[in-house]
Amino acid sequence: MSEVHAARRAALRAHCSPGDGTALLISRPANLRYLVGAVPAHAALLLTPGGEDVLVGGAVAALRGTPDDALRLLAVDGDTDPAATAAVLAARDGAASLAVEEHHLTVARYRAVRAAGGGLPLGDLARAVEQRRLVKDEAEIAALRTAAEITDRALGELLESILVGRTERHLALELERRLVDHGADGAAFPTSVATGANSGSAGHRPTDRRVEEGDFLTVRLGARYRGYRCRIGRTFVIGSRPADWQIELYELVFAAQRAARETLAPGTECREVDRAARAVLDGAGHADALGPLTGEGVGLEMGEDPRLAPAAMGRLGVRVPVTVEPGVHLPGRGGVRIDDTLVVRPVADGGPELLTITTKELLAL
Amino acid sequence: MSEVHAARRAALRAHCSPGDGTALLISRPANLRYLVGAVPAHAALLLTPGGEDVLVGGAVAALRGTPDDALRLLAVDGDTDPAATAAVLAARDGAASLAVEEHHLTVARYRAVRAAGGGLPLGDLARAVEQRRLVKDEAEIAALRTAAEITDRALGELLESILVGRTERHLALELERRLVDHGADGAAFPTSVATGANSGSAGHRPTDRRVEEGDFLTVRLGARYRGYRCRIGRTFVIGSRPADWQIELYELVFAAQRAARETLAPGTECREVDRAARAVLDGAGHADALGPLTGEGVGLEMGEDPRLAPAAMGRLGVRVPVTVEPGVHLPGRGGVRIDDTLVVRPVADGGPELLTITTKELLAL
């Protein structure tokens, strides 16, 4: 992996520091992970115009052996801001300016960086690293694929166990344990288990409510594997057979989710994906049930670009992993969510690659 | 609780906006929780010089009923920065300036706040809210006490189970499950379980190593209860009896921890607590084994003020909860950590109140 990280840094430098003497200072943890690999807490990366890459941090010594040869490690004590130390280095190396991540550095840290840099002018690197993270390479997609396999397996095992009488909290904890059992670093985001009137609610945090006969049960989880995160969401019915309203609502959300999935192709406008799901739900009178997003990019973080939303700009590209996650929640009754993680692929390569392969039939458990 | 939060806001306003027209903008989540109670994601609190308290946020509607009457709720859509909206309100209300948390706001958000405020001058609220959080009231200490009880119980149950052959990861997950079982909101920080050569290492993340006969086993965990967090750390020996070097090292760390605990009193210099532990370890030739801190404040966050460290400034006050957590790790062999959470109390009230009461005898399990 080490050449991969060195190549990413070289590409970033070529893009953001094209021979004008700009040094780049990266501090946002997910961006550091992308550019360096494993990242210690409290670190900053400096890319000098002269071509030197320096990782400054409180515990970089622990990284020895992990990063690539092209990276110099510089340890600082715990009270020193690594970003400020990086500014000192940039000034010493004769950089003409220093671009920092203004969307991540706090005002207080920014002032410390400015003071440490002497007269070195500061610029904004903005979301340049995030933009480079949008399209994944095949190694990143392989990590996402493994994350999805782990997630499918954890969910599959849960479905084989007895659910009635168990609390949302317990089911969520068991799912997270199973993720780790199967090799995940941990959960990609807090696992949501929602029963009865809670089901289908987007941001539901597990409670002590127990699963009952006749409930809808919505489960949303994802594994984190080598830093990469995915999401699956499924809704089940507890008992021998679903009620008519449950079948109807399930089929509606399934149709909306399928409609959105079917739009996923290189060149599709992001808002077009959202519109496809929304149109199905609107047609059935559930215009307000959908939240602000139908899906979002995933990778080293949940909620990366692109956003699949009504006002989203831009088009999908090849090898962009996204979630498609519409849902409807009827207050007091419950609802349905169906979430998948897919990778945008051209038709020639078989179209969108579905990573989360657990069945989307309405199972009665 | 609602009067408590209103009173905290009034005290903050009296302290930081003494009739000079300064509006206060609080954005740091733990500070919002302190001043408002439950806090939705993506929110900001504005205290106007005229005496109005406004909570601005994306999901403040969900708070209806929770906060106190003295708080106005203002919903904004998900793409709007609540801090920028608060700046608009402050300017409209005729504030002379707006103090923001420069240690929390990013440069990008700061620019958005400045633009939204028109010509409104911005100042720095700095860590004014954190300073007010240092000394806890008895309701906060009661929450910490419950957190510690839950933590002791989860640890006690683990000690009754069979440990040999189980992995660090599994033990950590089981402890976190037990914390939630006993009523915790969740873990206060990632639970650390370290066996064999990993034991005693401060930042150890659980691995797939299994517990073996003869191991030292170090466990560090804490519950989060109503937002309040504590820490306990204990080291055990696996097997019928400890080796001589294990007894010796344990007694040393225990002596260092006790020496530090015994200094805890109102008026003690923070660095004096650290020095007491360090002196014991230095005397035995383990000067380098101790990390930068012997302990730290706890409350709504881990790692609050005060820091118990060699260069720490300031003195302990009554009703300040701190951890005391020295440790020694011998590379390749393992080591010992013993962590407690205590509240500083005057001698007349019985001296320091030990919240984490699990025995510190060296147990052979």
% residues in beta strands of chain A: 15-25%
The overall pLDDT average of chain A reads: 93
Q: Care to count the β-strands of chain A?
A: 19
Q: Tell me what the CATH architecture of the largest domain in chain A is.
A: Alpha-Beta Complex
H-E string of chain A = HEHEEEHEHEHHHEEEEEEHHEEEEEEE
Largest interface (C-beta under 8 Å): A-B, 23 and 23 residues
Multimer state: homodimer
Task: Quickly name the level 1 CATH class of the largest domain in chain A.
Answer: Alpha Beta
Helix content of chain A: 25-40%
Morphology call of chain A? elongated
Report the CATH topology name of the largest domain in chain A. Creatine Amidinohydrolase
- The structural domain count of chain A equals 2
Which value, in Å, is the CA radius of gyration of chain A? Answer: 23 Å
CATH homologous superfamily designation of the largest domain in chain A: Creatinase/methionine aminopeptidase superfamily
Q: Taking strands numbered 1, 2, ... along the chain, how are they ordered across the largest sheet of chain A?
A: 4-3-2-1-5-6
Structural class category of chain A: alpha+beta
Distance between the termini of chain A: 43 Å
Count of helical regions of chain A: 9
